[in-house]
Predict the structure.
Amino acid sequence: MITATKKLSTRYNVAKFMAKGLLSTRHPLLAHIVPMRRCNLACTYCNEFDDVSKPVPIEEMLARIDRLAYFGTSIVTISGGEPLMHPELDAIIARIRHHGMISGLISNGYLMSPARIKKLNEAGLQYLQISIDNVVPDEVSKKSLKVLDKKLRHLRDNADFNININSVIGGGIKNPEDAIVIAKRAVELGFTSSMGIIHDGTGTLQALSEREMAVFNEHKKLGKRGYTRVNHFQENLANGKPNNWKCRAGGRYIYVCEDGLVHYCSQQRGYPAIPIAEYTLEDIRREYFTKKSCAPLCTIACVQQVAVFDFWRDEQTLEGIGHPPRPLGEENEDVIDGVTEMP
Ligand code: SF4
Ligand code: SF4
């Protein structure tokens, strides 16, 4: 259970992050970094894992964290693949904290044990997000409440960091009502809960069915402990409406893949694909001002949350690259964003 001291210190860090984010537009607010692409699961919708790759060498990872610190990055969240499979994950977290950046982790939770959780406490982890897709495992996903409930209890009893459980609706998830069961259990255990809309392989929207819409609305009413993290972006998308916003990916948000390349986000890998060692403050500035054509139907909540800081300022005057938005309802490979919420 998170201690009062840890809660206070995390709140102080978040307040600092908010103030710095509002005062300056020249640094990344959030970076996602991948220490290994390999995963111990194989969710059929996922385009963010393999079953063969090796962990990125620790020296390389630490150099990438140092570079993020040089940019003035506020929050660094480690994602994957499954980051808990990296043998030196704790050293990566410790390096993030050494630089005074806020540390986050996205995991499928399978490898959480009391001993592993205590090591994450010692390393200085501040935020963990686990995505749970269904109540009972099926052929699409084994990220299931039934399998993970024991791990969640270990986290409740041992974790000295904040925990958010993300459930999803849309795309190929069979029982949308599972999302409500998962959210209720998260709150019961003392965690926060969020809900994400599944996007397709270009990071854009799959329209919600009537049944999914009912779940989406029910989740909004359960307003407890950050329960209604569904923001106005998702409200529009659920209703099939595009969002008018400025995606600051590549500038205020950056995604660093296992090869050390900076991309806009997990769903726009390939742009701009510059090695982080060569990525500069000028690149960050350029991307801040660059329009992203995929923005209107994008469902990537963490990048949208980052964009809120700069919503009213600085028009984007540079034309971007990237996939054009896909029309609603068009068939595509379903992909759930593994990085739906800040941090
Ligand atoms: S969604 Fe997460 S747990 Fe599932 S295969 Fe992808 S990386 Fe692994
Ligand atoms: S709008 Fe931004 S976050 Fe969304 S898919 Fe495009 S580049 Fe990624």
User: Anything to note?
Assistant: Residues 134 and 174 are 8 Å apart (CA to CA). The pocket of iron/sulfur cluster (ligand 1) is lined by residues 39, 41-43, 46, 48-49, 80-82, 108, 143, 338 (CB under 6 Å). The first helix runs from residue 4 to 23. The chain has one domain: 1-343.
